[in-house]
């Protein structure tokens, strides 16, 4: 079976994963305010990596960018950096993998070289997926810790939709990268020079006849001596 459909499917999965990563990065719903223990439910607060917003039951939303980078928590700054790194790695992986697909004409004409290029693109896709998985899980762990902390007096938040999109994107990128890596096949080793080669077309009777003739010729030469 040809590996071309295998590679195309892997590429589509990885691109879908990076698209989800991009949507998660720019989304404003990394965390949403919890309605438990509050009297006013007509107002909702939700935050992303870049700004926080306040929405009302009438549908109006007011957003405000974070005033200073240094005023943010350290884990939010780290999440920003990792998500941007994931997107950059995903872009590089898409470009490299296109040169490694067997259905593309540009790049190397050698099938083995294209396999190596596809393997490199798959590894970068896996790294991009991990770079997305880490900040999303870290952010979710921080929300969970604050929510169940009885001593925390601030606004309690719940997991936003952007976290689920980020998880889905990271898993798709890792699966797509793994499939690209699996499409690479090593070169088959050729037999060593001077090694014994077995002729399958040769029957055992021929070997017996050659052995018998050699034995008779040897016995005849000895008789003359």
CATH fold name: Butyryl-CoA Dehydrogenase, subunit A, domain 3
Mean pLDDT: 80
Helix content: 55-70%
Low-confidence stretches: 191-196
User: What is the 3D shape?
Assistant: elongated
Any idea of the CATH class?
Mainly Alpha
Instruction: Please provide the count of β strands.
Output: 5
Second-tier CATH architecture: Up-down Bundle
Rounded to the nearest angstrom, the distance between the terminal CA atoms is 65 Å
The profile of the biggest β sheet is:
5 strands, antiparallel
Strand residue content: 5-15%
Widest beta sheet: strand line-up: 4-3-2-1-5
Polypeptide structure, described:
It is found in: Cell junction, Tight junction; Cell membrane. Claudins function as major constituents of the tight junction complexes that regulate the permeability of epithelia. This is Claudin. The protein contains five helices and five strands. The model is unreliable at 191-196 (pLDDT under 50). Helix content is 58%, strand content 10%. It is of the alpha+beta class and 225 residues long. The chain has one domain (4-182): Butyryl-CoA Dehydrogenase, subunit A, domain 3. A five-stranded antiparallel beta sheet has the order 4-3-2-1-5. It is elongated, with a radius of gyration of 32 Å. Strand 2 (43-47) and strand 3 form a beta hairpin.
